[in-house]
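Figure 6 in text form: structure in, sequence out.
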């Protein structure tokens, strides 16, 4: 059986990345409805089957993050999702947070919940074949945000989660996402990302989380979606790498970015540009959700006749990101 360090390295090595298919039931339902598909358990299952059975995915995808409902579902051939992933040579991951909820006393800010009962859930997920986990915290920029208490509460949750996962036998993917919502500048995103990552690694150290047994999943440093002054790809890439060099210890095996609402093409271009920013102490890879699966979902639209076309589109995005690495 692989050690947690080996799993962490396997997730980020060989030019491969992690696919995030762990949309909560409510998010997945609205994505399905957005393409005219009824948001039923069976349609969520079918869509996830389309993703994981995409031919050749193993060449560019090291692991797939699943949601709790998918982990308990089966492919049409009867195999449980984690077992099928193992057959394909892909590691199974599980989203273990229970979502971002309003933070008391902090208007407009959220704290991610899910620590209650997590030790027991980790044990169950390990018994079902999961190798790694994910927990996402969200930080907003704007109107005096983020507050110090939102940053503190969120990094505390991430560090407690990471410790419980390592204790129970899962590699934690630690995801502090500084959101793209708003008109903030590249410099503001850099400042907030730096503050959050510094606070995060302080808290991880306090909780004695082992850096070589985790993967960091941060936002890229980009300007807010509504900022009129959008940086060039090379600027955003260099600023992201500079920020990570300042804040992320070299003991972390790899950094796997979220896409955060960037177009699939732009996320890939940023990833590619970062590979030219000098030698780095960690692997830099992708753990995109929308930027990997969005175009495939748009292609499929619930139509069986478009199944293969949708898989080709997903495969194309995955190969493009592996090539960008
Ligand atoms: C796939 O979406 C994940 C779960 O989101 P919800 O719980 O809100 O449904 C999400 O955490 C995702 O893994 C990351 O945000 C990365 O996805 P993007 O689309 O930003 O690359």
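Output sequence:
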């Amino acid at each position: 059986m692989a050690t947690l360090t080996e799993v962490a390295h396997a997730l980020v090595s060989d030019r491969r990345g992690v696919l995030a298919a762990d949309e909560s039931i409510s998010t997945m339902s609205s994505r399905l409805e957005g393409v005219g598909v009824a948001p039923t358990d069976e349609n969520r299952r079918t869509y996830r089957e389309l993703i994981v059975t995409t031919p050749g995915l193993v060449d560019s995808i090291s692991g797939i993050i699943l949601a709790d409902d998918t982990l308990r579902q089966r492919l049409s051939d009867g195999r449980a999702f984690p077992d099928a992933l193992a057959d394909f040579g892909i590691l199974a991951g599980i989203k273990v947070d229970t979502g971002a909820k309003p933070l008391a006393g902090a208007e407009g800010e959220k704290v991610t919940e899910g620590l209650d009962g997590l030790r027991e859930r980790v044990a169950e997920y390990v018994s079902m074949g999961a190798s790694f986990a994910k927990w996402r915290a969200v930080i907003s920029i704007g109107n005096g945000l983020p507050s110090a208490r939102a940053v503190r509460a969120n990094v505390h949750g991430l560090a407690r989660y990471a410790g419980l996962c390592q204790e129970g036998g899962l590699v934690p993917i630690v995801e502090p996402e500084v959101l793209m919502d708003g008109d903030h500048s590249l410099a503001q995103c850099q400042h907030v990302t730096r503050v959050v990552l510094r606070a995060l690694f302080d808290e991880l150290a306090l909780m004695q989380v082992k850096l070589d047994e985790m993967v960091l999943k941060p936002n890229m440093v980009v300007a807010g979606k509504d900022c009129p002054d959008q940086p060039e790809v090379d600027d955003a890439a260099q600023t992201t790498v500079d920020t990570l060099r300042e804040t992320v210890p070299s003991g972390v095996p790899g950094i796997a970015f979220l896409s955060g609402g960037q177009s699939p093409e732009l996320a890939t271009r940023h990833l590619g540009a970062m590979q030219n920013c000098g030698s780095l102490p960690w692997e830099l890879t992708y753990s995109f959700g929308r930027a990997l699966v969005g175009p495939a979902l748009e292609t499929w639209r619930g139509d069986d006749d478009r199944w293969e076309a949708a898989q080709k589109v997903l495969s194309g995005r995955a190969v493009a990101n592996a090539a960008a690495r």
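Caption detail: The two ends are 28 Å apart (CA to CA).
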